[in-house]
């Protein structure tokens, strides 16, 4: 098992300063990725309470385990944004930042005097990533937007779950995460424009709804041209056959993706149905999709007679893509995850050892690294203020007046 990398490792974003004005999931997940690849991430938190994520889900000695993961490599500075001195600190940070990432409701930063019109005057090269429910424009811009709403309006919930059940959600905050990834992509493209072309900074306007909608494949043209409304299909991949989840004798399930033409033939031969492998009407996906129910039934009859291990062994021997459905216990124990440093050993305050997810993607020349876990609230306030030129006396005054913590 690999251990967390040291601070000496340099990533591809070394020298890039990122200012995070966000909380919970969407903005912080984006800056987590940037920080893992070398960016200096300064996270602005409210004094006393900090990011609510510090208290979400499972806790260790009063702090969320999710927090330690989501905020690794970040510097925490506790600033009162309602204080004029606190705002002055943020503006100084903006002057030296390359990227600002925020997920206030549209207009929230403007009310604080930190809108784009102000920030671009302070730093014309600034890239500002703005993540919100519906985007910075449009008739819904002022509505509160959480990931659950983005998933619902973006189309993914309507297509998730069993046909005879209400729409289901994915078991993680997928809407927020998709928005985060789009924010990172936008930030990197804008940075490239600034750094290599000498271009001006710009706003990256990311909507949770649109981020989900962007991964919905051919949903729109199928509806517009064919009147097709894609809905819930359980474990199947609609219109791509066969690709589904099949039961096994020991009460488990295997996922089998036999949907390319040559793989389908190998699959049918592996399950003892050479007649279907050679059937001219099943040579293409369109023919197979027309009889998807029949093919799923044939495969399920075969899988029910075998354990998960027996089914996977037979399919692996036939070079058919298949796999078991992993729980977290399966993931942590899996040799492939461990061989690729996807399970890292971390240390929490007090010396407690804990396993944490590794870093994605893998880069051969400038890999990402974990330099420290999520910090205590305001742990870097003094260091950051000192870097901005505030002396010890000024920092003490700001703290007494409640501008910082």
From TrEMBL:
Oxidoreductase found in the keyword field: no
Record flagged with keyword Ribonucleoprotein: no
Keywords attached to this entry: Transferase
Gene3D superfamilies, per the entry: Crotonobetainyl-coa:carnitine coa-transferase, domain 1, formyl-coa transferase, domain 3
Pfam families given in the database record: CoA_transf_3
GO MF annotation list: transferase activity
SUPFAM superfamilies the record matches: CoA-transferase family III (CaiB/BaiF) (SSF89796)
Coiled-coil residue windows: none
Origin superkingdom: Bacteria
Protein name: CaiB/BaiF CoA transferase family protein
Source species: Methylobacterium komagatae
